[in-house]
Amino acid sequence: MRTYFLQRLLHAIPLLFVLSIVLFLVVRSAPGGPLAQAERNPNITAEQREQLRARLGLDQPLHVQYITWISSVAQGDLGRSIKTNRPVAEMIGERVPNTLLLVGAAFILTVLIAIPLGALSALRQYSWFDYLVTTLSFAGQSVPVYWLGLVAILIFYVWLDNPFTGGPLLPAGGMYTLGAPKTLADLIWHMILPVAVLCSAWVAWYSRFFRASMLETLNADYVRTAIAKGLPRRSVVYSHAGRNAVIPLITMIALDLPSVFAGALFIETIFSWPGMGRLFWEAARGRDYPVLMAIIMINAVLIILANLIADMLYARLDPRVRYE
Amino acid sequence: MHGSIRGCAMSELTLNDAFAPSARKMTEAAPLRVLIWRRFLRHRLAVVAIVMLGLVIASAVLAPLSRYEPTQQNPTNALQPPSLQHWFGTDDLGRDVFTRTLYGGRISLTVGLSATLLSLLIGVIVGMVAGYFGGFVDNALMRITDGFLTLPTLFVLILIATLLREIPALGLTSSVLIVIFVIAVLSWMWPARIVRGEFLRLKHRDFVLAAENIGAGHSRIMSRHILPNTVSLIIVQGTLLVAYAIITESGLSYLGFGVQPPTPSWGNLLATAQAYALRAPWLMIFPGLMIFITSMSINYIGDGLRDAFDPYSAR
Amino acid sequence: MKLNLPNILRRQRTLTATFILLVIAVLALAACGAPAGAPAPGDASAPSQIVVIIPEEPASLNQYHAVAAIVRQVADAVSAPLAAPNAQGEFVPVLAAELPTVANGGVSEDYLTVTWKLRPDLKWSDGEPITSDDIKFTWEAVSNPASGNVLSLGFEKIASIETPDELTAVITYSELNQAYLQQFMYGILPRHATGAPEEMLQWAWNRNPVSGGPYVVTEWNAGESIVMDRNPHYYLEGQPYIDRVIFTIVPDPGAQMAMMAKGEAHVQLWPGEVKEVYDAQMNGMAAIQEIPGQWNMTLFFNLSRPFDNDPGAEPPHPILGDLRVRQAIAHAIDYETIVTAVNPGVIETATPFAYGWYQCDQERKYLYDPETAKALLEEAGWVEGPDGIRVAQGAAYAEDGTRLRVQLNGYTNFQQLVKLEEALAEMFKAVGIETTIQNDDFSIIFGSFDDGAPRQLGNFDILVYDTSLPMEPHASIANTYMSTAIPTADNPAGNNASRWVNARADELIQAAGATVDLDARRAAYCELSDLIATELPRLNLYLFTEGYGASNRLSGYEVNMWGSLSWDIQNWRLD
């Protein structure tokens, strides 16, 4: 089996190389270009715009541009942004911590809430508790997240006031109160709404998922046998069923980890959170190719790795799964 | 954008694996059909959900009965709150939001269903071939599937839009088609994975070997012998994809890449309403509610189906 | 790997407890009023602070790299121009002691020598003196081919700069630069605090400039906010009045509005909404301050066949190639409804030359009259079909049976544009023209020829967007209306997207380009305007107003269509 995964890891390298070509082509053959803003600026003449294109090397044939790009990436240089002229690595570096903070917190909170929720509603299948959890989780995944975000701002920022200070109950966005010193309390204060909105959708999925896999194992023959043999139900539930039910959950977490890097565009936009999702979106809209390609490729690497890790975990944790 | 869709993708991952285990217990479907239906009817919320969804679909179908046209404007009567004349109020061009919401339902439901069918079609074929043949074919197809997961949504969207625009015959409804294609292209990977898993599992079963022995061809074995055993899974997966597609359509609209105006869809009604949140909250409440009710109903139906297909169901 | 699910489950109770604790902590935070951001009004000792909402982050504060319009909106708060246009469109001295003119000897008779004199005792924000050498350095830096300068200011026309003393810079031009007053309106650069000209794109100064303007950057939180404090060495005594300005990046319009309505933010750049609707949402907390602006909403008709792999003028567009169809479209538009109800508050105009010294009083040639529109379409061979949409029967360029269908093509995320398109679609339908709408990403609509932009390739029916002209418009006019300016593979930057070929127009533009006599130029432009209004390569609809949402606590500002949001930020006051 180890050979299998080593093989997959080796295969990932040519896969990434092919992907880099495909993704470069996809991004570059989509119409639109980075100089659209210049077109809108009355102080920039057509001639100047063409000079700018030449300076950026955008007038070169596509394959030449690809080779230039891939060879500098191979040397560890992600290049400079067309828009800001700053190193791409620096720009990504500024955003990654913010995204890790927001999405990471939401992710951890989600798992912490979803596991007990899912387990309990499986153990008490068709109880009122189960119905409640089911309904809430369906509700969480049945509304567009940007809509929920704006509704949250309307309620907690516009309509509700803080009874002590008279200001809004919760901030509308950003990471810190503008003009105030940056404190941890202030940061948490600003994270409440976006994290809550993110969690509302995720907890739904995760608790449903865990409920289903818990039900599956509870109905499995070995659990029934264990109960039949007279083992205490409690210990059977925890050590037999629970342990097996958590296996698919772990692989799912592994598969979802890349999204912690990719950020959450809608939430970041609604709540003015300076994360990766927005950086990517802005780069995409402005066709800032170096930034764009860097994020896409990092993301591709992470997704492929996550898939590999998920399969590996599955194989390790579930003796029934065999790869050859 | 990637982030957002990953957010949704997260949901997808859930579905597949979540509903795989229970359906695994399924054997031959035909004699069970009646039983399954009975079991489904016992899931009260699912039955309520079917009624709700039926109402939503009926309202979309009967939309032309409204006394307004969806594009009929009256700019001097813009942004009116709900009243007897305009049940859901009017929008920024004085159009009747009730009528537009009904017509929007037509588009959103069409997008939801078509994208799901397309996604299942691609997914099932890929999954079938990969799982059945295994080995190199499986490896290649699954790596392509991985590759699709890395595609940047926005560019897929723009590329498809550009390609489709070169076919002027599509004309009027092309933006709806584009949205359908995009959602399908971005979501077929999940059904593909489940179907592949099921095929890997089932292909060594006795009934497959028996079929091989009497000389059935690959395509016959795949489509006649193994595929029917995965139908329950595919149906459950399909219901959830519909909900996902409707939500995704609204997300695309928010980013400015959804169904083009003046054709209303729930998504673009919501996206337009964002800017009027303070002045005219009803603009965002009603289409949001419709999405909510529809998606909720579909989820419950999926839940009911899952239970119904599950022989261990406690009811 | 050992899993410890039982513990996780047992921790259920602990979790509940944690949750309750969290709630308590949140309440405690609320009680302490952690986000005690802006000091209470009326507290005289507290430093004053305003929050300015911007929808996107400027890439740099170096205006010579300002490709996007957002840069100047922020950068003017830290820039050091010698002279700049005021709200009336007249140049006024800023760091210069006076404007150089022929009368005061600052400009030679042949306009080739211009002498700038600085105000005495000027200092950069780091305390170093601002000298004429900085003027000279600005020329050296910006004219360097590697500087990355994108603005067209004529620095290449400067032959030399002499600095006889600390305050005087004598500029010698090798050829006439009519826009010599604009030369340093984007600020001069400090030699001591920047870097080598060829490295200008990478100067640290670009994001943290040693400032000659009213403010200095104290903090730049990527993607979130730019904090500026007053420049202690600013030349105006006691100004700026507000101690701290925070530019905060809020992309979602709903969130922007909410912050303005709650009074947390004081200025909202580009509200994207007309005054009437905006003010109503603000409940008296804020209002849009507006003046006639320079963005001219226009329909651009494609006179050439789209999707024929030929960006050139021939063959004609099957529908819009016929002047009568364009006239019918012009007659079908209810201009009154558009400017009063669809986009209320905009200012109707019928000419591309709607402001500036070259402004023309253009009458509309084709007024709102659906009956005439229908008659023109009949005459052009478009007869009414069974569903009310016309089909070709003997039309000039379309095969019989072709549906009269056109597509409006605009850009996304601009609600007013969408409203206009939707209203136009209804008006067109009323005369039997079927209309679809396709809004594309900004970078597609305004992309270049090589990027495959439909506008440059000629693959569209009617483009809908707003354009503007600079104070000195000739280069732009020539590149837009000359028959030689049709974008093709050989001339990818051409801007004649309508593919309009008109010999008289070419003559007029060439005549205007050959003279320095402003009256003669204006006469030529106005005849061109008349020709455009008649031949309809484009149809001008209205001017947007220029402005921003401003809190009712803010005063002292003046909206300037030639300047930026922050052009007069040193005069702003917060009550």
Range of helix content of chain A:
over 70%
The CATH fourth-level homologous superfamily of chain B: MetI-like
Shape descriptor of chain B:
globular
How many strands, which pairing sense, and closed or not: the largest β-sheet of chain A? Answer: none
Roughly what percent helix of chain B?
Answer: over 70%
CATH topology of chain B: MetI-like fold
- In DSSP terms, counting alpha (H) and pi (I) runs of 4 or more, how many helices of chain B? 13
| Class derived from helix and strand content of chain A | mainly alpha
What is the arithmetic mean of pLDDT of chain A? 85
* Assembly state: heterotrimer
User: What is the number of independent domains of chain B?
Assistant: 1
β content of chain B, as a range?
under 5%
Number of strands of chain B: 0
Amount of beta strand of chain A: under 5%
Residue windows where pLDDT falls under 50 for at least 5 positions of chain A: none
Count of DSSP E strands of chain A?
0
Between the first and last Cα atoms of chain A, what is the distance in angstroms?
Answer: 6 Å
What separation lies between the terminal Cα atoms of chain B? 43 Å
Largest interface (C-beta under 8 Å):
A-C, 90 and 83 residues
User: Spans of chain B with pLDDT under 50 lasting ≥5 residues?
Assistant: 1-30
Question: Which properties best describe this structure?
Answer:
heterotrimer, B: 315 residues, mainly alpha, MetI-like fold, globular, disordered N terminus, C: 575 residues, alpha+beta, eleven-stranded mixed beta sheet, three-stranded antiparallel beta sheet, 15 helices, 26% helix
Protein architecture, described:
The complex is a heterotrimer of chains A (324), B (315) and C (575). Chain A is 73% helix and 0% strand. Chain A is mostly helical and 324 residues long. Chain A is flat, with a radius of gyration of 25 Å. By secondary structure, chain B is mainly α. The termini of chain C are far apart. The radius of gyration of chain C is 28 Å and the shape is globular. Mean pLDDT of chain C is 87; it is low at 1-15 and 31-43. In chain C, strands 1, 7, 8, 9, 10, 11, 12, 15, 16, 17 and 18 form an eleven-stranded mixed beta sheet that branches. Chain C has a three-stranded antiparallel beta sheet with strand order 4-6-5, covered by helices on one side. Classes of the chains: A mainly alpha (324), B mainly alpha (315), C alpha+beta (575). At the A-B interface, α1, α6, α7, α8 and α10 of A face α1, α5, α6, α11 and α13 of B.
